[in-house]
């Protein structure tokens, strides 16, 4: 499984890339592999506010439907419509195919997420 060094990871197999007070959020290579071929992705609208642990959206595949849990508090400021229109993008490029960008409410929450090495160990457990 591919794990990128410059991202943060949650135990729910969601990655976070921070740029200032903005965070891009997507699913990991492990998550997309476990789900199988994504057929449908439901994402929130811009302006929706979330608390860490809330369901951000849903990804459906032939195997299953899976909730995506947001690992940080934030307000959605961008939605990646490309993945909603072509869900297979999360399979072919899980780290390039972010789902939403949020304005972080508490940047300190990001530091509580796993870094790449911790996430790799978590996957081995």
List keywords for this structure.
125 residues, alpha+beta, OB fold (Dihydrolipoamide Acetyltransferase, E2P), six-stranded antiparallel beta sheet, three-stranded antiparallel beta sheet, 5 helices, 9 strands
Give a topology summary.
Elements: E1 8-9, E2 14-19, E3 22-27, H1 29-35, E4 38-42, E5 49-50, E6 55-61, E7 65-69, E8 74-79, H2 81-85, H3 89-92, E9 100-104, H4 108-111, H5 116-124
Tell me what you see in this structure.
It contains 5 helices and 9 strands, in the order βββαβββββααβαα. The longest helix has 9 residues, at 116-124. The chain is globular and about 35 Å long. Strand 6 (55-61) and strand 7 form a beta hairpin. The chain has a single domain, classed as OB fold (Dihydrolipoamide Acetyltransferase, E2P). It starts with 7 loop residues before the first strand and ends with a helix. The strands form 2 sheets. It has a 6-stranded antiparallel β-sheet. The protein has a 3-stranded antiparallel β-sheet with strand order 4-6-7. With 125 residues, it is of the alpha+beta class. The modification N6-lipoyllysine is found at residue 63. This is Glycine cleavage system H protein. The glycine cleavage system is composed of four proteins: P, T, L and H.
